[in-house]
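Hi D.,

Good news: the full-assembly prediction came through. Inputs first.
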Amino acid sequence: MQTRIFRIACLLLVASFALPALAANAPARTVGTLLAPAAGDQVPAQLQAVERVHVKLDHGPAAISWAVPADKAINATPRPYQAISRQYLINASGAELQRGVELTLTAPGDIVRISPAGPASAAIHADAVQFATGGVQLDAATASSVIASGQQMARAGMPIQHGSSVFKLNARVQPGTARIAAAGARGSYLIQVFEPNSPYALQLAADRGTRLAGQSVRVTVGFAHAASAAATSLKSLRATLAQVSGVVEAPDGWSENVDFSPGPGGTWVANFTPPAAHAGERGLWEIHAFARGRAGGQTVVREATNAFAVVIPTARFSGSLAELATHAGQNLDVDVGVNVAAPSRYAVSAVLYGHAADGQVKPAVYAQAADWLQPGRSVPVRLEFSATALAKSGLTGPYELRDLTLDDQQQLGVLERRALAARGLVVSH
Amino acid sequence: MKRLLVCLVLLVCGIGSACATTGVAFVHGTGDQTDAYDNYWQAPMIESVRQGLSDPNNLLVVNCDFTQYMWADGAAGCLATQLYNFIQARHIDDLVVITHSNGGNVMRWIMSNPTYDSRYPVIVSKIRWVDAIAPSSAGTPLANAVMAGNVFESSVGWLLGYQNDAVRQQQTSWMAYYNQNYLLGTAGRPALPKGFWDVVGTDVHSAPWSSSAHCGGYWENVGLEITQEWLDSCSDGFIDCTSAAAAGQVWFYDTQATQGGEPLSHNQSRRACFGLDVILRNDVE
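Then the structure:
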């Protein structure tokens, strides 16, 4: 029995390699166009011949494909990431820290970190730190259940700089206003307050994960009101935003202040256009929001950070699509036309969907192809959907081309993305 | 499931003689390594897994600069060079890649972007699967916390957190972006070309009196009591279980497979602790 299985497996293996070689005749082409973009698709309106990143990349073509599980749904429209924060930051000078810096605390058990900000700033030793809460002065050891140095934090996997001190406050420090002071503070400092048990979490999201240079970004901030178990008594309180400021930062280090204004449903909104001069670098842009609000007569302070990409539209799909008519057992090849404004290595990827026996359309094969392309007329990039993978899927035509994506491998940016790009692709029998 | 795949491979290989030349590559996590054998994995781990190879020379310990972004030449480029040269030199056609932490992200970058470099498809074609130990596939809140505040000071070149692109990239917001746009294998995204099997650490035993706390080096107890506040109740002290399980498929949660059902902290999951080395060795055989 086992020998028989071996032989069958052997035949299948040989067949999977031999079948493509049987294609002796050049396949005919069926020329068509991509479906019109739908809402949610990312499509560049105008190309820019800008080369910002210069890294050594292959100039030759590459193509690969593999089977994907039919039962795992693929979402071709990325959802913006919602950053959630229960922390805030304070910049303080050494003189301010010696006098005492006000902290607003909304829950017991907060984490307070003091880090020197700059080589001229003195290290903060825990025994020099005092907390004032409810009219009582407490030394750090009395106010904290755990105290750790910067070195101890680094050894625990959180590499903050030496000279830092971190305090996990105990129940003696109650929610409300407290002050932290450090004798011997000199220079400048970052104070980070993290409130893991607070019911007040700030949400921050951009409207899209990827923006093309020249497009505006809309960022929304609001309180999430997720209550933790330790703050059950505060669940009913709702926080409202009173003031929000922000900073946007590009991968090249450029940064600028961002203005927020009240938006719908208690949120605050900022609209800004990242300068194209700083777009196209590898890495992500960051938006930082600094918020102050009120909840039940209490001040709530939060800082949140999120990331998004700003990409220079150096190429786009031309709209042309050529299916190379194939026979059963051959790869299904699809040429996707690309218009190029700046020379680079461009990658096209897509998922081929087929029909299951019950008529449902399901994912079958993922393909990716890349080549170094020069500016000019529409250049085809060929996606080669493996016949073996297609046969393995058990799905049949007509096929659909979904999650069609074009990216620039120099700037590492997604230039165009179509959730549904083509229907009616067939394999002849 | 993973064993079933082994059986299928063996089934097909059984047709011919000496079907595959198996190799193992160890891929370290964040850091600039020049001697990952001694400084990251240590001999008991490497030598134990080596016993699973019919040719013990078919083992590679990768040394790259994983303080850089995963796509950088010093990260994915370096990893590709070392894997490609190993494959060519040893004629490997059945490669098991064992990654730890951020090493899983760098490996996943290569597997997700195989057309970026002409060597990538060759590497992908030779991989049997990746054993991804504690991968930070969805980032870690500790990276968020470390990077906080840098926005104030980066313009003058003084960073309040780690001045390290790999840490920046492992912020949860960054990994969410790359998972949706450049990395495959997470929920809602196309599958990776080869298996990516997660080993998930669920807890940390850090009490000084606990013998299990000392395997792999004593985990800093004081700092851990604070860092845990940023993490879920299920974490290995550095990465939430949800992040470690976010890409590919979960192979096992530590306590399901380790000796005595011991959890594997983030430090322990790169060392020969609680039989992890034997589990990996058996997986290679």
